[in-house]
Amino acid sequence: MAESDTGSDIVTAALLVIGEEILSGRTQDANIVHIAKALDQAGIALREVRVVPDIEDEIVEAVNAMRRRFRYVFTTGGIGPTHDDVTTDAIGRAFDVPVAEDPRAMRVFEERYPGEPVSPGRRRMARIPEGAELVANPISGAPGYMLENVIVMAGIPRIMQVMMEDVLPRLEKGRPVSTRTIRVDAPEGHVAGGLATLQAQHPKVQIGSYPFFEETGVGTYVVLRSADGPLIEAAVSELFALLIREDMPHNDEDEETS
Amino acid sequence: MAESDTGSDIVTAALLVIGEEILSGRTQDANIVHIAKALDQAGIALREVRVVPDIEDEIVEAVNAMRRRFRYVFTTGGIGPTHDDVTTDAIGRAFDVPVAEDPRAMRVFEERYPGEPVSPGRRRMARIPEGAELVANPISGAPGYMLENVIVMAGIPRIMQVMMEDVLPRLEKGRPVSTRTIRVDAPEGHVAGGLATLQAQHPKVQIGSYPFFEETGVGTYVVLRSADGPLIEAAVSELFALLIREDMPHNDEDEETS
């Protein structure tokens, strides 16, 4: 599998999950799979995920490594009102731009809570690095933002999800990748040789192999992915021929164009 | 929160999840939370997680970056029998050691399937980088291994879990970190100022703040962590005093020593 396997015009992305609670095992992350699916459907290829603690230096280092390498970098977590929310200061440092109370963000809170002075916690959440565009948060107000190619979102899953919805239309998209999944009722080892040959013959189709274990036996999901649908069909036909020749029971699990 | 906050004698670790299926959103990762908890209980601090695709160059780069920085690096995925299982070759390249069929691993298969010649798929899974110690896999045979400070495990959760059990006793441990979780029935913004002061006064206790949203209202979990139990107790007492003074309803959610 090479970087270019699923087709040309690839728009790449990386995700930086910021949160001690994931690293300590306190929380089961729910954001990675959501963002991975949303990007896949949008034709953006998620190429790397990192999880780091709420430590400013580590966030700065990760953001700078990732933003140079990928078209987009998404971050989740660390933009709340408390002392351990250090993402925004880290982003300011990573880009070497000042961070200050943003009039647009302040207006969000003023309109949401009319007649109230904006509380210190909300003022902290209105601090935005200079040059960023806001990302709307219709659920609780406090916005995310996009600075150059870095999109900074909340860690709370349902807030992160509405932020993704707000920001996705602004992003450059690649060709969406189509996926075919074939279920083979034989262990991975039995299909390994055939799949290796198939992959070599179809360099533009990414062929993945995932074992499964059920009460009735073991088997293999073969997942074929490409931005070029006809190439997948050609590879699937050859896979079926191979499975029939080797007498391996199989069926077409699903057909999805994501 | 600084690197040394939860106490001295910290043994650090990183996790490298290898798998296109996580990045495409096909699979919800289940390994990160399991490994994070197991390490936390063992007194090993998980400091970073990365997810990369099944691309040899990317695995080599990540392993080399992580193994120099952390006491241990765990990897999951990519050690099966198919063409997209490239972890072992990547580990060999990262350490610049040869990879060959390992007599110990071959013996595992020979004893498991007596009288049968070892199949090509199993022979592929018996390829181990030179100098590695095996990690047992009582479920399906094919072993993981530990090379210097890098522990290579399967991606299938129940196999990864038995491999963790096998390898953990061999590892250096730090002082286990104790955790106290206090539930406060007030939004994060209301406790933010007090928590910042508390954190400044208790640099050896890591104080995290996690909002929650329930039908009955919003609130905050305050999580205090330290390898030094009495330090946590002192910080918790001050937190309670603060919450009572500010009239914020709260209760001691749990007391766990992990």
Automatic annotation (TrEMBL), chains A, B:
<dbReference type="InterPro" id="IPR056596">
    <property type="entry name" value="FLAD1_M"/>
</dbReference>
<feature type="domain" description="MoaB/Mog">
    <location>
        <begin position="14"/>
        <end position="174"/>
    </location>
</feature>
<dbReference type="InterPro" id="IPR036425">
    <property type="entry name" value="MoaB/Mog-like_dom_sf"/>
</dbReference>
<dbReference type="Pfam" id="PF00994">
    <property type="entry name" value="MoCF_biosynth"/>
</dbReference>
<protein>
    <submittedName>
        <fullName>Competence/damage-inducible protein A</fullName>
    </submittedName>
</protein>
<dbReference type="InterPro" id="IPR050101">
    <property type="entry name" value="CinA"/>
</dbReference>
<dbReference type="Pfam" id="PF24102">
    <property type="entry name" value="FLAD1_M"/>
</dbReference>
<dbReference type="InterPro" id="IPR001453">
    <property type="entry name" value="MoaB/Mog_dom"/>
</dbReference>
